Amino acid sequence: MSKIDLNERNVGSKEYIMVQEDTYPKTSWQEFKQVVKRSVKGELFTGLKITFKMMKEALFNKNMHTVQYPAEKLPITARFRGMHKLLALLESGDNRCISCGLCEKICISNCIRIDSRIDENSRKEVLDYYINLGRCIFCGYCAEVCPELAIVHGPRYEVAGEQRAHFIDMEDLLTPIDKLVSQKEYPGFGDISPNADERMKKTPLSY
Amino acid sequence: MESSLLIETAVKVLVVLLVFSALAGFTTYIERKVLAFMQRRLGPTNVGPFGLLQILCDGVKLFTKEDFIPSNAVKPVFMIAPIITAATAFIAMSAIPFFPEFDMFGYTVRPIIADINVGVLFVLGVAGIGLYGPLLAGMSSGNKWSLIGGARTAIQLLSYEVVSGLAILAPIMMVGSLSLIDINAYQGDNYWMIVYQPLAFILFLISGFAETNRTPFDLLEHEAEIVAGYATEYSGMRWGMFFIGEYANLFTISFLVSLLFLGGFNDLWFIPGGIAIVLKVMMLIFTFLWVRASWPHIRPDQLMWLCWKVLMPLCIINILITGFVMMYWSNL
After folding, report:
1. Which of B49, B70, B207, B292 falls 20 to 30 Å from A68 in CA-CA distance?
2. Which residues are registered as beta bridge partners of B144?
């Protein structure tokens, strides 16, 4: 399916017909006449014809509607606002983020945390950038407020996890894996508990 | 001689039971596939090649589910109701000649379990007893939806018994026998019965839809209105028995229509009779599925209106015309 097809997929043929049937039969004779008229006109067979045509199209003209999801995916638009990405500078590969803390401040679900320090050149350097996706509501304020376009929304949308704690370590775009242990966040609803590691249980299927 | 007959009958019964239980499962797969294609979906694809093992999975699921009996249900009746449905569906098959006679290991096999001279009457009668399954299930479940489903069973099946009985009266008048083998032989000598009795064919097919609870008339388990009707409280194998009974009934009606109106197992041009009847039954079952994909349900009052004010008068007119034609043009 191309992009244009995707965007136009619910528009239809734009040839809508208003169905206004206010000629309901009043007497039983009119009712009988309506039934006879419909039987002779073969309205029932029109239905059969339509479903048969659908089957023919689906089987032989590749007009199947199903998208077999994990195997094939619909294309998403470039403006899709999925999981966050933390961008790097093109030349040096350094982090674009200047740890100004605006996203941290504006985040309405309070799920962003930045750890920073002042480096040798007396510039601010990001040590740890962390978004708790279990709390994030994908409002997009962080991306909107960022003066350096460092944090943006990416195309990834499969953010299901087996445990609440996994919403941290799946975000490897933001935080390098070796720094996950030292990760801190603000307390709040949806937060993982301090002893989450001990309380972590295997799901029943993997016993 | 006696013992050989016994063994032969037992083997036939076993074959019919096994083949049609398996076919019932397979028809659910076909039904899901056909319905899916007609809605431009794929149907089951993931389990096995083309999703064929879905049948097996469904079977395992049904067998391993809890056999749940509600506390307010009337237990013995509740437990016996699905058995009535399944049993009558298979008993009705005992008088149906499925194929022409054939030789196997030098022994002539007649693929009919009991060749009784009132075959049609027996099949319709036993299929009519099948109404006690849903009726008792609905009344014993202790559930309002089930009760409504049971009540609808009674009105629907009883009314359409009349139509189906009267519809095949005209062909039976022409053949002069109630035996399905005689009716089949008559169509071998003459044209197919549908040529002489097109109206009776349509009427019988409509009542067949009603008696097998297929879609335009499946008011007894109308999902949108009464949850699952009489089967609401059933689970596991008991529900599976209703299911198997329903699909076995579907096959019974399809065989009956083929035998009565579509030439039965007589040879068709170059096609041998055994294959011809299988093709006819397959075509009829596809029609049942096709109609399910296309047509909406009707209301119970429309159902009754159709039965008593349209179909039954048409049946009687058909019988009268057939009778007069037979009286005055006796060469028919």
Report:
1. B292
2. none
Q: What is the pLDDT of residues B146-166, one digit of tens each?
A: 888 888 888 888 888 889 889
- Nearest-by-CA chain A residue for B43: A66
Q: How far is B309 from chain A (nearest CA, A)?
A: 10
Nearest-Å Rg of the Cα atoms of chain B is 20
Find the CB nearest B42 among A47, A57, A64. Answer: A64
Q: How far apart are CA A80 and CA A6, in angstroms?
A: 14
On whether the CB atoms of residues B221 and B213 are closer than 8 A, the answer is yes
| Rounded CA separation B62/B51 (Å) | 18
Shortest Cα distance, chain B CAs vs residue A14, angstroms: 21
Mean pLDDT of B206-214: 86
**Which stretches of chain B are DSSP H helices?**
2-38, 54-64, 75-92, 119-129, 132-140, 144-167, 169-175, 180-189, 193-196, 198-211, 223-226, 236-261, 273-294, 300-305, 312-328
ipTM of the complex: 0.74
The backbone torsions φ and ψ at residue A151, rounded to the nearest 5 degrees and listed phi first, read -100, 125
Set of chain B residues whose Cβ sits within 8 Å of the Cβ of A64: 40-42
Q: Which residue of A has its CA nearest to B216?
A: A44
